[in-house]
Amino acid sequence: MDAPWLDDDQQRAWRAYLRMQARLSAALNRRLQTSSGLSLADYDVLVHLTDAPDGRLRPYELQHALEWEQSRLSHHLSRMQRRGLVERRECADDGRGAFIVLTETGREAIATAAPGHVEAVRELFIDALGPDQVGALHHLATQVLVRIDAAADR
After folding, report:
1. Which residues have C-beta within 8 Å of that of residue 67, sequence separation ≥ 6?
2. pTM given for the model
3. How far apart are the C-alpha atoms of 86 and 8, rounded to whole Å?
4. Given pLDDT bands bounded at 50, 70 and 90, which one contains residue 19?
5. In the sheet that 56-57 helps form, which strands lie side by side, from edge to edge?
6. pLDDT value of residue 32
7. Is 113 exposed, middle or buried (CB count within 10 Å of its CB: 0-12, 13-18, 19+)?
8. Share of the chain above pLDDT 90, in %
9. Which of 107, 94, 90 is CA-nearest to residue 45?
10. Dihedral Cα 132, 135, 136, 142, nearest 10 deg
11. How many CB atoms lie within 10 A of CB 41?
12. Phi/psi at 99 (nearest 5 deg)?
C-alpha cells in the first residue's frame, strides 16, 4: 500500500520545520564556533558529561544519549580528546571497557561557552515564542518522540 501524499498544509508545515531546524542548527553552530571554538556537537557531548555523575559516561551511554552512530561518536571523541576536552579512562570493573571523562579543559570550555549559547537559543528561538507556544512545542515534541519510540519498538 502506498502512503498517502501530504496535503498542502502538511507539506508546508513539514518543509518549514525542516528549514527551521537546519537554519537554527547552523546559526547556533556558527555562533558557538565564533564565540568559543566549540561546535554544536562538542557542546552536546560536554553537556551530557557535565550532567553525569563524576563527569564521566561509558561510550555506549553517550552514544544512546546523543543518538549518534558508534563510528561518529568514536571519531568525534578522538578529535575532542586531541583538543584536551575529554579523555578515555579504563573501567576498573571491566578491563575491556572505558569511560569518557570530562577534563578540566572541557569543563572550562563549556562554562565559558554556555552563557553565550543560552543567549543565542533565547534570541533565535525561545523569544520568538509566547509562553503558550513554548508549552505547545513541548507537548508536540513529546508526542512525536513517543511515536518514534513506539515505532522503534515494533
Report:
1. none
2. 0.90
3. 47
4. very high
5. 56-57, 94-102, 86-91
6. 97
7. buried
8. 90
9. 107
10. 180
11. 17
12. -115, 150
